[in-house]
Design goal:
CATH superfamily of the largest domain: SPOUT methyltransferase, trefoil knot domain
Number of domains: 2
Number of strands: 9
Largest sheet: 5 strands, parallel
Bound molecules: ligand JFB
Distance between the termini: 40 Å
Structural class: alpha/beta
Strand content: 15-25%
Order of helices and strands: EHEEEHEHEHEHEEH
CATH class of the largest domain: Alpha Beta
CATH architecture of the largest domain: 3-Layer(aba) Sandwich
Length: 234
């Protein structure tokens, strides 16, 4: 999968070259391109923002450098990328979103700052036949300072689903949310050695070697944990 990320803070995305996703980049499973939006500015001050029409606080990102950047990036191949715009007003990014995107050959993330990107950017690329749609998405109901951290979250969630990335091929399918869409279970607790740590023992059933009992116990634990952590009336 190819992933491009455009930001005025390209160094902020550096951690994607570490750990699990970094290994997927090194092995060629993910072809990662991080771009500085200011490379597509046209003035001496490399301006990317302007005052909001209608007034109000803060600044808005101009669509002009974004349009030049996205057209250039798209023009590097014949594939149709999906444009992902992280925004606090977007549709929620969930595990099923990650699963759908993991089948896509090319994602381009437009990471805004300030009060966000001029709305005509999404509008234009929705209608541009060189692109496979636009996803305006939010990672959760809290306000970040920009799209970079959200893009990193999404790249990690998508990247770990790609064939060969997890190493342990069964783990991804078996995770907290992968069966989910509406009423799924979260995972139960996990344990490793030592068998007793600070007086706390590993549940007996896990030492029993009775695989059917272990499966049953884990299912019950997941059920309990889901009720404790996800019940609407806390
Ligand atoms: C994403 C962003 C801002 C408008 C903009 C660009 N879950 C999330 N919270 N915040 C963001 C997000 C996601 N995905 C997010 C992109 C941008 C926030 N900002 C800052 C703050 C308030 N209103 C700019």
């Amino acid at each position: 999968m190819r992933i491009d990320i455009v930001s005025i803070f390209p160094d902020y995305l550096g951690p994607l070259r570490l750990s699990l996703i970094g290994k997927a980049v090194d092995s060629g499973t993910i072809e990662l391109h991080i771009h500085d939006l200011r490379d597509w500015t046209a003035d001496r001050h490399r301006t990317v923002d302007d005052t909001p029409y209608g007034g109000g606080p803060g600044m808005v990102m101009s669509p002009e450098p974004w349009g030049r950047a996205l057209d250039d990036i798209r023009g590097t191949t014949d594939l149709k990328p999906k444009l992902v715009i992280p925004t606090p007003s977007g549709a929620r990014f969930v595990q099923s979103t990650a699963q759908q995107w993991s089948a896509h050959p090319w994602l381009v993330f437009a990471c805004g700052r300030y009060e966000g990107i001029d709305a005509r950017l999404a509008q234009f690329y929705h209608a541009d036949q060189h692109w496979d749609g636009v996803a305006e998405v939010s990672i959760g109901d809290y306000v970040l300072a920009g799209g970079e951290v959200a893009a990193m979250v999404m790249v990690e969630a998508v990247g770990r689903l790609l064939p060969g990335v997890l190493g342990n091929e069964v783990s991804a399918a078996d995770d907290s949310f992968s069966i989910d869409d509406s009423g799924e279970l979260v995972e139960g607790p996990v344990f490793t050695r030592p068998q007793i740590w600070r007086g706390l023992e590993v549940p007996e059933v896990l030492l029993s070697g009775h695989h059917a009992h272990i499966v049953q116990w884990r299912a019950a634990q997941a059920q309990d944990r889901t009720e404790q952590m996800r019940s609407v009336d806390r």
